[in-house]
Each structure stands twice: as C-alpha cells, then as structure tokens.
Amino acid sequence: MERESERKIKTQGCPALGRDRARSSSSTTKQSASPAEDSKNKRKASPDNKTQRKKRRTSEVTEPCHSCKEDGRVRGEKRKVGGDGEGPSEERKKRKTSKCAKKPSVDVARARFKARYEEQNQLGEGGCGSVFAGYRKSDKLPVAIKHIPMDKVFCKHVARNGKELSVEVAVMLKLAKSRKKGEVGTSAPVALLDWYDLGQELILVLERPVPAEDLLKYTEQKGGCLQEEEGRIILKQLVNAALELQEKRIFHRDIKIENILIETGSNTPRVRIIDFGLSCFTKKTSSYTVFYGTSTHAPPEWYSCCHYRPGPSTVWQLGVVLYEILHKDSVFETIDFLTNRLQISNELSNSCRDFLNKCLTRIPYQRPTLQELKRHHWLA
C-alpha cells in the first residue's frame, strides 16, 4: 500500500523549484522561492516517458520531520537536572525503571499480534516503513500490515489525555468513530483494524481491499492514461472523499495517484484512500509554514509565499491527480505547469478542461472550494 515512489518531505523556509536533494542528506533544506527560469519550452512526449515516470518517482527521497507543529516551531523537551547535580536524576531513574517495566508489555503485544494475524509477502517499502499482505486468522480477512520504525513516525498528535501517539493512528481512530464496530469497506479511507506499539516499532493492521491496485498501476495498465469518462467517475469519488475528510477536520496532505487504491472487483472502479502518515487535524483558519507531502506537487502559494491552507491545497492535489490520469505517461510537476512546460490537452472536453483549469488555478483563493467542485457541471 505504501510505495517506494512516494516522496514525503518536511521543508522549512521557501523551496527551490524542481530541486532534488541527495539521498544521503538527512537535514532540512532551506530553499529559494523564485521560480525556475531555465526553460520556457513545452514538454515534448518521448517514447520512454513511462520509464521516466517510474524512474523519477522512485528516485525521490523520504526525509523525517522533527516536529509535528505546522507553524514551523519545534517542540522541545527540557531535561531536568538532579537536585545535587551529581549522578542520575530521579527523572532518569524513573525512566530506566519505566523502560524495564514496559518490556514485558511489549512482548505481550507482539505475541498478541502474532496470534491474531498471519503476515505474508511484502507489498511495498518506503522511507517510513514496509507494508506486507496478510490475513486475520479468526476469519481469513485480508489485511495490510504496516511496520513503521519509531524514528520514522514523521508526525505525532497529543491526545486530550496528554498521551502522544502517531498522527496516522489518531486520524484513523477518528475516522473509525463514524463506522459501526467491525465494519470495513463502507467509506473511501481504508479502515484501521488494529495497531500495536512495540517500543521500537509501530504496527498498523489495515483493511486490504481485494482485488485492488493503486491508481498509478491502474493507469499504466490502461495504456498510460484513462478515458475522460473513467477519469470523471474517479474524480467524483475523490471529491466526495476529500469532503468527508474536510468535514472531520482532517487534512491528508499527500493525495496522489500512489495513495489512491482502485477496487477492480466490479465494472465501476471504486476509490479508496490510503497512507495518512503525513495527515493532520485542522481548524477553520489553519495555515501551514512547514511543508509535508510530495514536493513536486506543492501548490504555487508554497513557492511564492511559503505557506498553504488545507482546502485550496487539496483542490490543487485533485487537479494534479486528474492531470496525470488523463495525460498519457505524464509526470506532473508544479514548476513545469507554472512555466507552461506542461499544458492541459486540447483533446479533452471543454467542461473537463474547465474543471482542470479551476483546480490548477495559480492563486489559491481563486480556486473553487470542494463544495463548489462537487457542483461543477463536468461531475454532474
């Protein structure tokens, strides 16, 4: 469910357009906000575009973020010194004792996981962990088992009880509240069925739709692009899914074709949303100055003003998804689109072109809201 092709980054400051970082780098990159001016020519299709798409997606680097604060402030923790200034403080003693006390519970949790689930072949591997196919032993229900090293948990959320947990877990637990107990497959986001904190590793047990494949593979198998009508069916479901998340004040932040599953068990493709590892909870006025997501899909306002908001950014991402599935073997990059090296095909219908142009409007407040997109005549 999670692919190597994903690029998940945290960027502070303004980004340099189209600039990649070396795989060995682990530091936060400060980037320039000025657009690239190296070329104003339109991109020409080449016979190896499909190969290029795969290569560019798999060459992107995943870097950890050191703060879950969207406003750029790093949450620090002060160490308290012992009263006498010598030897380990009481806090350190308690920490050691607590660590030893937790070990049996970790072993119990691991044993419980192995008793309940059978892990099978690996489905994918990325910068934040690995995903395996599996099934629940009690009823043979197919599941996806996601292993995340604790140092790869990019963002965390502090619950009301003061406990800190992975934001991916927190978001999916909130989504689960709207479903009946044990119910799966009823909404676009895949369900979190179970999770285990094993100290050095977090294990998420997720719903695994069968048969299904991610939208990237689905599009490639259709010859590199989809027919406009099929794209309309998929986008209509995506807009509804994005509205569902918005109503629950959840910002996915990385909607793209690799993070969209298509169920293929019927004549009509069904959309499912995966990978909430970079998501966050929002407020009505939320605005972010630390970028989490796929850098090549960052909205124009990130490049020009170094901030972005949930609604306009999600609309931009939906436009990116639609562009990539309707343009043969195309890899969308914001800078290429802004400098006219990528253009919307004239072969699309006028209403589809209008929908795309509205999603990919440069100025964020001029983009339609998700509610307005849902009412667009192309989706009607």
The domain count comes to 2
Spans of 5+ residues with little confidence (pLDDT < 50)? Answer: 1-9, 16-48, 54-101
Approximate strand percentage: 15-25%
Strand element count: 14
What structural class is derived from the secondary structure elements?
Answer: alpha+beta
Instruction: Output the radius of gyration.
Output: 22 Å
| Largest β sheet strand count, sense and barrel closure | 5 strands, antiparallel
- By CATH, the architecture of the largest domain is named Orthogonal Bundle
Find the CATH superfamily of the largest domain.
Transferase(Phosphotransferase) domain 1
Q: What is the helix fraction of residues, given as a range?
A: 25-40%
Number of helices, where a helix is a run of at least 4 consecutive DSSP H or I residues: 10
- What is the overall shape? globular
CATH class of the largest domain: Mainly Alpha
Mean pLDDT across all amino acids: 80
Question: What fold name stands as the CATH topology of the largest domain?
Answer: Transferase(Phosphotransferase), domain 1
Distance between the ends: 31 Å
List the secondary-structure elements in sequence, H or E.
Answer: EHHEEEEEHEEEHHEEEEEHHHHH
